[in-house]
What does this fold into?
Amino acid sequence: MRVLVVEDNEELVGLLTRALARSGLEVDAARNVADADASLRSVTYAAVVLDLGLPDADGLALLDQMKRRRDQTPVLILSARAGLDDRVAGLNKGASDYLPKPFATEELVARLQALLRRAPGPGGAVLSLGNLCLKVEGRQAEVDGKLLALPAREVDVLEVLMKRSGRVVSHDALQSQVFGSSQDVASNAIEVYIHRLRKFLAEANATVRIHTIRGAGYLMDVAKS
Ligand code: CA
It folds into this structure.
């Protein structure tokens, strides 16, 4: 699982990265709200650790941006602003937990793991990327809140690509996750579904793109505007 640490204190970023990596998590770091927002738009994270005192804006602004996009990635706030009002404000804006600074790394790791256990599993999750969101359980994809009439296989392909957004998914991995171990799959089946999916997304004005990485597979990300 990959988590995003939003923190401008380099020393703390290093400490958190090492502690979270030791507990088996992959860590990306963002130093300000703008970078964090860009990362959240292009990669699907299991959770966000969010500092509030950031150089470009209040960390709470990131929660507002996430809410507007209906991004339900759980957020743990980490802040020196530990007063009751600050905690309530953070939780009211949708944060899942609030840990005052200074904190013990062990406690942060334990709380983050508790939050990851509570987070909706793959069944109840909503994946979001750009203006596209996928309700995994309901198998419904939406662009800007408008439902896309995607056939089931296209939804399967979309789910795999969205879960690994920003990273390359090999043709074989995609085929085995969409068709299982079924042997009688046409060799160009995945290309056909990718082609149709691109058409659906383009017609709906989705802000995401599916790139073909020659010899490696496919990669989904947010189109640079
Ligand atoms: Ca700070």
